[in-house]
Each structure stands twice: as structure tokens, then as C-alpha cells.
Protein 1
Amino acid sequence: PKLSALRAQELFEHIIVGGDEVRAGRREKPDPSIFVKACDLTGVTPQEVVHVGDSFGSDIVGAGAAGLRGGIWVNPAGKPAPAAQLNGLQLWEVSSVT
């Protein structure tokens, strides 16, 4: 539903859905493999990637574990980020995306 509402298929050539990965016998976020798969599909290194997500535990912790350059946490509730879990990841927070 989120991807359809955002019309993501019109914006991105590759879309990886965690639930689809699990049904195919693979791991989902926060496992680093899903982030590495996205890098491989797009031909970039993890150090070139910033991940945008709304779940600190799945999106931001997973991005850090995969060695991504940064994470943008969509955090409308203004929850504090647990710095100990960032694993060196540069973090930006936004309260909304329009």
C-alpha cells in the first residue's frame, strides 16, 4: 500500500519488498543482505547510498549494519534516535515527506 500510494513504480527501476524477500526464502530488513542486494541491482557501493525509511529498527539500523553512507529517518512522532545503534551511520531526521 505505501509503494502504491507513493507511485514508487513510476520513480524507481528496482523495488525490493521485504515481505517478498521472506516469501522467496531470503531475509528482510534489518538484515544487511537486502541493502546489499539493492546496491548490487543499482550498481553502486554501500558507501554511495543513503536509505530513506520510517522504521528506526528496520531501516536505519539495517542501513548502518550494511555499511551505507547514511539514513534518512522519517520520524513524524519525533522519537529520539538511539545513538548506540547507529553503527557509524550518518543520520538525518525529517518529520514528514511531501
Protein 2
Amino acid sequence: IFGALKGAADGGLDIPHSEKRFPGYDRDSKEYDADMHRERIFGGHVGEYMEYLEEEDNTKYQAQFAAYLENDVEADGLEELYESVHEKIR
């Protein structure tokens, strides 16, 4: 939801929002880390989970990411995949 909101706001839609709700906002320091938010939008957290699951439970990894594996999508290639998808949407 936050990725869609950010995309709509970046696209020029006037949607009242606060960066405090986005991933990357630190409530303690009251600062927003746009790079952390970008990493999340481009699947960094998915890649980390892929790597974790591959090491911890390979059977579950192969079941969970079967479509990715069939298409030769690896954890370190997710950002490029997400970028190409975003480009096609535009």
C-alpha cells in the first residue's frame, strides 16, 4: 500500500499523506530514510528473505519461490526485475 501511495504522490496526485507512515521513517530520530524506502519498493526485503530461506529451509524456499526459480530470478536480481516492471508500467 505504501509503495502505491508513494508512486501516486510521486506521479503528481495530491494525496494527503505523511512520510511518518512510510518504511524508512525512524520514530526515535524523526527522520525519513528515502534509500531504505526505495530498497523496500525494489524488493530488497524479498531478496533477503529468499537468501534466508534458501539457507534455513531449502525445501520451503523451492516451494515458495518456484516461479522465480523457473524464470531464473535470483535474490540479487530482484532490483533489476522490479525496475523493468516499473518501466513497463510507466
